[in-house]
Amino acid sequence: MRRKLVAxxxxxxxxAESIRTLLQGIKDxxxxxxxxxxxxxxxxxxxxxxxxxxxxxxxxxxxxxLSEHASGAYTGEVAGPMLNDFHCAYVxxxxxxxxxxYGETDDVVARKFAAARKVCVKPILCVGETLEExxxxxxxxxxxxxxxxxxxxxxxxxxxxxxxxxxxVWAIGTGRTASPQQAQDVHAFIRAKLTERSSEVAAKxxxxxxxxxxxxxxxxxxxxxxxxxxxxxxxxxxxxxFLAIAQAGC
Length: 250
Ligand code: PEP
Description:
Elements: E1 5-9, H1 16-29, E2 37-41, H2 47-54, E3 60-63, H3 80-85, E4 90-93, H4 96-101, H5 106-118, E5 122-127, H6 131-135, H7 139-154, E6 163-166, H8 180-195, H9 199-204, E7 206-210, H10 215-222, E8 229-232, H11 239-248
Parallel strand pairs: 1-2, 1-8, 2-3, 3-4, 4-5, 5-6, 6-7, 7-8
Helix pairs in contact: 1-2, 1-11, 5-7, 7-8, 10-11
The structure holds phosphoenolpyruvate.
């Protein structure tokens, strides 16, 4: 049985004050949704604050990206070993905004995934097609290519300690959600690709859906057989909404 994970990607939002308020709200409302694992992903500069606020709770935290390098002359970057100093459980790799705005290729994403594993921080690997790719009918080949880059570098066993997030790019921040069946079809495809390499690992790997998930659509999405939670952007910035999504997964 895969425990659902509801993860909040805060992107480049928040301030020390708003984050204190948000975390207090999440902590206050977490007990009734304890069946679901919660995790939050602040901007790097608030990691220390988040660690202080969440230490000793059941809520996990992590970062939105990391460098593929372990240290050195990489101005502006943050390395895997640094995440250990803040006891990060997870790191998001290959988010579509990183791929499209910052030119992260499949190869770079795979190396970031490897860098996370090296320091025992669990990667959440994002995959997903653009609208153009969906319209061309190549969703599966795009997702397969993104997944294969990581599988070829790190192997199937790496997914024992990793999470996948299927995020159709056309659904991120647009208010346009994949239908539960559209999402389920891709999730089942991803699981089938993992099964080709190991049915045991495939059965255990959590595959989250991301893309305008809200309290109103979360229950239907998370009721699908291969949807094991959500990666939430906009709706993770309000404790009430974030917790309502988690409730839908209980
Ligand atoms: C995301 O950025 O991962 C995301 C799913 O954003 P939103 O929920 O705002 O669509």
